[in-house]
């Protein structure tokens, strides 16, 4: 089995999900009590999100590279970043290390192609929704990616940073998130919704929406499990 280097902490809830689902997912696939080796380097979502909001690519790259250098010393076989916003500089970071990195965005593109989706609504941090890094790989494959209204984008971004990243989700907040997602179906005519923030499963994990979701976290985790077992 390959040893995984996981860059986590961005945020804590997602890191817990990655760790548990990868460990137990590997054991389930093997059908015996064997757990993979994982080294986690935890960063702060409260540093990462401002980098994304201001499109400070250089600052974000240096911050993530600090974690990569630690994982290099831990002799990891590959690295995964448990954060959608951090993928804003994925290519820059990947060029600076000899260790392979598994892109969350690219595995989501592959899943969308497999399911023959043509038009997707992207939900995530404000930085993710306004930047091109998530949209361009889909558009290269002929898949259109749209975002909510500016007002909804600001609302989503604020509640991710000030509630979800604190491990909090109120009833009113959850209802509003569901309303925004369902508007994608009724107003924008999308085929599916990309949960483009690793904290969004806190909101949508147990909800049945009007249209399918591409859960970036779950898709990434499954691909990490497959990579560990290669």
TrEMBL record:
Keywords: Isomerase
InterPro entries: Asp/Glu/hydantoin_racemase, Asp/Glu_race, Asp/Glu_racemase_AS_2, Asp_race
Origin: domain of life: Bacteria
Gene3D superfamilies xref list: 3.40.50.1860
Pfam family for this entry, one: Asp_Glu_race
GO molecular function: amino-acid racemase activity
Family designation: Belongs to the aspartate/glutamate racemases family.
PANTHER family: ASPARTATE-GLUTAMATE RACEMASE FAMILY, GLUTAMATE RACEMASE
Protein name, entry field: Aspartate racemase
Organism for this UniProt entry: Faecalibacillus intestinalis
């Amino acid at each position: 089995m390959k040893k995984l280097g996981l860059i986590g902490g961005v945020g804590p809830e997602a890191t817990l999900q990655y760790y548990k689902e990868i460990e137990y997912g590997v054991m389930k696939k093997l059908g015996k009590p064997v757990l993979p080796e994982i080294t986690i380097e935890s960063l702060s979502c409260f540093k990462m999100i401002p980098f994304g909001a201001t499109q400070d690519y250089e600052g974000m790259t240096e911050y993530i590279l600090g974690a990569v250098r630690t994982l290099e010393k831990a002799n990891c076989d590959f690295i995964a970043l448990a954060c959608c916003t951090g993928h804003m500089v994925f290519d820059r970071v990947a060029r600076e290390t000899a260790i392979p990195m598994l892109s969350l965005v690219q595995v989501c593109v592959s899943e969308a192609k497999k399911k023959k989706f043509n038009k997707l609504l992207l939900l995530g941090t404000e930085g993710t929704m306004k930047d091109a890094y998530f949209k361009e790989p889909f558009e290269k494959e002929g898949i259109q990616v749209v975002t909510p209204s500016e007002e909804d984008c600001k609302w989503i971004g604020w509640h991710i940073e000030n509630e979800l990243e604190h491990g909090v989700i109120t009833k009113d907040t959850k209802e509003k998130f569901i309303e925004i997602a369902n508007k994608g179906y009724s107003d924008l005519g999308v085929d599916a919704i990309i949960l483009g923030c690793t904290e969004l499963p806190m909101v949508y994990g147990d909800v049945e929406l009007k249209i399918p979701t591409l859960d970036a976290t779950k898709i990434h985790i499954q691909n990490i499990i497959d990579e560990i077992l290669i």
